[in-house]
Design the sequence.
């Protein structure tokens, strides 16, 4: 299985400050069609996960533009330009280039 | 709006079978392009994609669980079911049902999850 490794696992951030989460895959996520299937999910406390970003950098409808995704190959990053209180939760990256699709361990974002 | 609701016994004994149902409202599980996934989350841990089923009935099972898993569609009840046999404490988790539209991987709608504890 493709191993997804996130860092940091815990991310205390001051309100209004930026945040960055790294996700590394054990093999390239470039699919045979040339697309890269790396997705970011947010799980707020007590809630189900919610998709934020698909195919590395495509933000979902309704996701604030302070969220952005970047990367290629095996290294990917989720950035929040200015953290707000509603951003508290656990963030997961997921690869869907290879079955079984696999998630990172999660990064817990909290407010300092 | 599409809604998914997982249901089933909250407590299962070791070696027995875990059975869950995902009831879908606001859309048909047999709609072309619909994919239904089961993802689980052990307490305090990360997410694991365990199975998916396509609107036509074809399955994708996580190889680590394949020998114990059965996922099926009941279009008459608009439900997706999951059965996991020979459970152990390691199968204790919140089990989520999710819908993907267009591509199996998209997970655009999630249920609220059902906690299943394996214990004697």
Sequence:
């Amino acid at each position: 299985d493709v191993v997804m490794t996130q860092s940091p696992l815990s991310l205390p951030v001051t309100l209004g400050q930026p945040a960055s989460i790294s996700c590394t895959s054990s093999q390239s996520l470039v699919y045979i069609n040339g697309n890269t299937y790396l997705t970011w999910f947010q799980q707020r406390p007590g809630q189900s996960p919610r998709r934020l970003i698909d195919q590395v950098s495509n933000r979902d409808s309704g996701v604030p533009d302070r969220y952005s995704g970047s990367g290629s190959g095996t290294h990917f990053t989720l950035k929040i330009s200015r953290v707000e209180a509603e951003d508290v939760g656990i963030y997961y990256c997921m690869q869907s280039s290879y079955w079984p699709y696999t998630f990172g361990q999660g990064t817990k974002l909290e407010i300092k | 709006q599409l809604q998914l609701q997982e249901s089933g016994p909250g407590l299962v004994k070791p070696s027995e079978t875990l059975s869950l149902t995902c009831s879908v409202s606001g859309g048909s599980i047999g709609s072309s392009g619909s994919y239904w996934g089961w993802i689980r989350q052990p307490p305090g841990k990360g997410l694991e994609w365990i199975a998916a089923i396509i609107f036509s009935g074809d399955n994708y099972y996580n190889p680590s669980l394949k020998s114990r898993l059965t996922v099926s569609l009941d279009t008459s009840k608009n439900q997706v079911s999951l059965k996991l046999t020979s459970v152990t404490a390691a199968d204790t988790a919140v089990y989520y049902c999710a819908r993907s539209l267009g591509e199996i991987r998209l997970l655009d709608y999630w249920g609220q999850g059902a906690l299943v504890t394996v214990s004697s």
Q: What stands out?
A: The two ends of chain B are 39 Å apart (CA to CA).
